[in-house]
Amino acid sequence: MTDELKPVLIKGGMAVDDRGSVSFVNDFNFSDVKRFYMVDNHRSGFVRAWHAHKNEAKYVTAVKGSAIIGAVKIDNWDNPSKDLEVHRFVLSEKTPAVLYIPRGYANGFMTLTEDAKLIFYSTSELKESINDDYRYDARYWNPWEIEER
Which sequence ranges form a coiled-coil region, renumbered to this chain (predicted)? Predict the structure, then answer.
């Protein structure tokens, strides 16, 4: 996946029978993953954003609840345009999937449920990631609005 130019949602599925259920994403390959971490917020509607890396790609999945994930390709690391395209995804434990966020992107999320837990898989070791870390204000791009329909 490291050659992808845009975020890609790798869809999974769920099998249910009289014993229970199995959630899966069979097309996800861990070959370039070096570490992972789990994140949850204290309440729904809380935003954690924007975190970017020039060299590190990430994969993210919702293991509990649901969240909006945003990804933005950075054009200028010191002063990115506020008009960049924001890729927006909703991840949920009810729809198994893994979102690939390529290197060169900023990412962030807003929890939609009180119990949301996300796992991030990183292609960089922590010491590499620390030296490749860019932060922008949580509302620098704002894909967090919920559209009533």
Answer: none
Q: What is the pTM of this model?
A: 0.93
Residues 57-86: b if buried by 16+ CB within 10 A, e if exposed: bbbbbbeebbbbbbbbbbeeeeebeeeeeb
Rounded distance, CA 130 to CA 82, Å?
A: 25
Which amino acid type is present at position 33? V
- Where the chain has pLDDT below 70, the residues are 1-4
* Contact (CB, 8 A) for 29 and 110: no
Residue (of 84, 30, 20) closest to 52 by Cα position: 84
The CATH class, in words, for 8-135 is: mainly beta
pLDDT at 1: 53
Enumerate the domain spans of the chain: 8-135
List, in sequence order, every residue forming a beta bridge with 147; answer none if it has no partner: none
